[in-house]
């Protein structure tokens, strides 16, 4: 066998092991998260104050969320500070990197019913063209959405036909 082919196989195996290890570590870390979600209010005596929330594991939240297979994106836009199925408060602070036309793209918060809850435009910090540059943005939502599942979407629009491209989705729980 040619030495180049052997090195290519070795590199592919190493990359696979690194990616698989990162996925296992992330799953372990995320599995430890606890999320509060509304639960039915039990009948209470006057001396008791029932809690409107019950503890749920990340897996329970994932099982109840409407988005089972979030779009991981192309890598041109990243959301670095939010884990999938995380519990978040308003305003939502989002940060990451983007390599998009003129550093400008959009973010939106979509409910499981498909309705837009909130949206924002984002602009990367000044940087070199063709490289991923950092950004940060806040998105707020109304208190009426507390206790619901939603998805944060970041994307840019094609200059050619206006279609959505580089879509990345992060399913979340609004508290």
Number of strand elements: 9
Percent helix, as a range, is 10-25%
**Any idea what the radius of gyration is?**
20 Å
Instruction: State which percent range the strand residues make up.
Output: 35-45%
Give the class from helix and strand content and strand pairing: alpha+beta
Structure description:
This protein has helices at about 5-30, 60-65; strands at about 35-40, 55, 85-90, 90-100, 105-110, 115-125, 135-140, 150-155, 165-175. With about 180 residues, it is of the alpha+beta class. It has a domain at about 65-175: Immunoglobulin-like. β8 (about 150-155) and β9 form a beta hairpin. The N and C termini lie far apart (about 60 Å).
Which characteristics define this entry?
single chain, 175 residues, alpha+beta, Immunoglobulin-like, five-stranded mixed β-sheet, two-stranded antiparallel sheet, 2 helices, 9 strands, 37% strand
How do the strands and helices of this protein lay out in sequence?
Layout lengths: L2 H29 L2 E5 L14 E5 H7 L21 E3 L3 E7 L5 E8 L4 E8 L9 E7 L8 E10 L6 E11 L1
Overview in brief:
The chain is an alpha+beta fold and 175 residues long. It has helices at 3-31, 58-64, and strands at residues 34-38, 53-57, 86-88, 92-98, 104-111, 116-123, 133-139, 148-157, 164-174. The protein contains 2 helices and 9 strands.
């Amino acid at each position: 066998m040619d030495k180049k082919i052997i090195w290519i196989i070795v590199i592919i195996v190493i990359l696979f092991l690194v990616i698989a290890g990162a996925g296992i570590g992330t799953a372990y870390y995320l599995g430890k998260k606890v999320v509060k979600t509304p639960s039915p209010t039990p009948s209470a005596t006057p001396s008791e104050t029932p809690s409107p929330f019950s503890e749920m594991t990340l897996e329970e939240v994932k099982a109840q969320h409407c988005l089972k297979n979030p779009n991981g994106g192309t890598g041109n836009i990243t959301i670095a500070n939010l884990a999938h199925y995380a519990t978040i408060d308003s305003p939502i602070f989002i940060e990451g990197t983007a390599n998009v036309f003129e550093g400008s793209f959009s973010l939106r918060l979509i409910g499981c019913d498909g309705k837009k809850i909130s949206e924002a435009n984002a602009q990367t910090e000044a940087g070199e063209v063709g490289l991923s540059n950092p950004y940060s943005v806040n998105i707020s939502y109304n208190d009426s959405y507390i206790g619901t599942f939603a998805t944060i979407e970041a994307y840019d629009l094609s200059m050619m036909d206006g279609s959505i491209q580089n879509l990345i989705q992060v399913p979340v729980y609004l508290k």
